[in-house]
Amino acid sequence: MIRGSVPRLRRTLVVLGTALATVAATLAVATTPVAAAGSPDDYSGSDLWLRYVPVSDAKLLRDYRRTVTAIVVENADADRVHRHTADLTMAPGSTEKLVETTLGAARDELVRGLGGMLGQPTPVTTAGAGTVRDGSVVVGTPASSPLVRRAVSARDLAAVGDEGYLVRSVSRGRARFTVIAGNSDLGALYGTFAFLRLMQTQKPVDHLRIADSPKIKHRLLNNWETERLYAGNNASGLGGLNGESGAIFNFAATGASAGRNLPVILDRYIVMARALASLGINGITINNVNADNAYLTSARIAQEAALADALRPYGIRLGLSIRYTAPTDSRFAPDTLTNSQLDPYGTEFRGWWTRRAQQVQSAIPDFMGFTVKANSEGQPGPQDFGYDHGDGANGIAAAVAPLGMTVHWRTFVYNAEVDNDRLKRAYLEFGPIDDEVQPDGTRGRFADNVFLQTKNGPLDFQAREPIHPMFGRMENTNQALELQVTQEYTGQNWMLTYLGPMYEEVLKTDTYATDENGKLLRERLVGNIVDGSAQHHPDTAIVGVANLGNADNLTGHHFSQANLFAFGRQAWNWTLDSTDIATDWVRMTWSNDRRVVDTIRTMMMGSWEALVSYQTPLGIGHQFAEGAHYRPDPADWAGRDDWSPVYYNKADSAGLGFDRSPTGSNLAAQYFPRLQRRYGDIDSVPENLLMWFHHVPWGHRMDSGRPFWDELVYRYQMGVQYVTWMRETWETLRTDIDARRFGEVRAKLAVHEADAPTGGTPR
Ligand code: GCW
């Protein structure tokens, strides 16, 4: 590589002029002072988007108070969820409380939400002799509530399935009331949150006729914050306070927090549960995929059972990440295996996993199953013992299938022996197993209760990647899409980066998938593959690698809350528009004032593209200094090729970028023909993926007319200046936002601005 190119590249990050200042200036919004949005100045952000401040529009408040006067949840306490832990309790001094039924959670949320927004208590009433009082909000299922049964037809309700809901304004005689109905208690809870969201975002609620249901069945989080801890609550953002680790869940806190370990339930677990239910997220795998076997020990299982108990009324099930070789861990003695017994077809191996899963299930009856990172980044797997991923995944899957559990087997593997191009390796390993003809004549070896969990792109959660070539290519296997919510490569807890548009880009990318005769499928966007509509998969899943920690605002950066919100909304309905989602989030989190909403939404909507521009523009991947994944270091060789910026940028005297066209590694050939052609040709590849697929000559002419080098410089500068604009624009909101949150975001934006052009000091 030509050494001169990289310093030149790096210099552009810092020395460019101010030609775009005018853009920033024209985008800046004029200031007119308005009343603050209704939170006390020391508000920490701890309620996420469930803040329920008084409705600021006086007319709307009057309308709401007229339309909503009572809460009716018949038999709310009848259907108690399972509770394993006899003496489950909240920590002393808690403000949240434990609920025992899902309908109770719905009722309590209405009491809290309506009370807050209407500025007066809304009574919980019973329906006397089947009559409904004018202004009631009636919640339930046909089974729980005679009123619901009468108000909505069975046919209409059947159409929304197990977890969907109807929200309707109904007139009966002289009474007008609202019905929130589900086929299950959980559906009714989801409908309740949807109703509250309408009011939080100041929409009319007097003529409702809403039917909604999720497109994807398992809408999950993998909570990784047991490792990188961007949401940890201490000064440097890298850990906890008072003996906590910085993770959201306390299993082994020490010192002042020793009494706050599970089974004790903390407020933040309940806030999380309510917030996740408000989005329709229905499962969380609580530990990092670089898994610690401690989570399978009896002591931990008892703690996990308490957590599961607390979350259960909100429809959130627990899962665990496990290590393939857990059976050999002496912590499970005397029930341990030797390496030679780790045969995935053997009864010892399967028996061990069945026993362990049974133990978990006896404490957590609705336990989801296991997530496995195998033969990846030092995690052990079947290949260490002479078997492939299909053998390993199916071995554990067979062990847990009788218990109704699933295995999420991650496809994030990049064994260097498979191919010189890291990006080709996963499909080369998994594709043939999916294609394999089975003894019964069907194709695909992976068991029905295995999901292959695949990151959105073929590298590793970079700010922008093309879609993973496996989407649509694994016709015979259940596939789960894994998106990163925690901002490992997108600014961590320092940068304001709204990822809704990134998720939207991924989900709405056309795979151009074809059927076995080479005919284009009719529905073939990534979202169609994931929701099963493209290839008729009955079981479907989407997973967000989440960002929850013990920070007061739960995510470290106030704006990281938006990424969790967006992920959840898109997991429920991937066709949603990320701008609309941002609007909802701003209204629910900051203010309903039009100018505030427009200003913050505008900041958010450009923030991801700005990050891409100042960090990895035009499709260049992974230019980060080793380890931290925050600061760029394009000249670095990190000890192995596929962790190294130089391997990805291939900078030399001819140009920049990784040739993955037919003249290079030909990753392009792993895509369906239409994309293969598009990506394989430097003239048709989208410019935002240019260097992903091509070694681009320095003088290559771009669509803008600029030479490649100049375009690169332009993009870097655009990104950097956008951050300055965001910092300046936030200042215009000083009088609109409560002081603590305003100041915390302001401080983060100052760091963001300093770090965008240079990467700042290593963080
Ligand atoms: O991006 C990489 C991260 C690892 C992570 C890995 C994975 C949890 O740097 O921290 O491991 O991806 O997805 O397994």
Automatic annotation (TrEMBL):
Residues 199-553 form the Glycosyl hydrolase family 67 catalytic domain. Residues 1-36 form the signal peptide. Residues 555-756 form the Glycosyl hydrolase family 67 C-terminal domain. It holds the Pfam family Glyco_hydro_67C. It comes from the Bacteria. Residues 48-194 form the Alpha glucuronidase N-terminal domain. InterPro entries: A-glucoronidase_C_sf, GH, Glyco_hydro_67_aGlcAse_N, Glyco_hydro_67_C, Glyco_hydro_67_cat, Hex-like_dom2, TAT_signal. PANTHER family: ALPHA-GLUCURONIDASE A. Homodimer. This is Xylan alpha-1,2-glucuronidase.
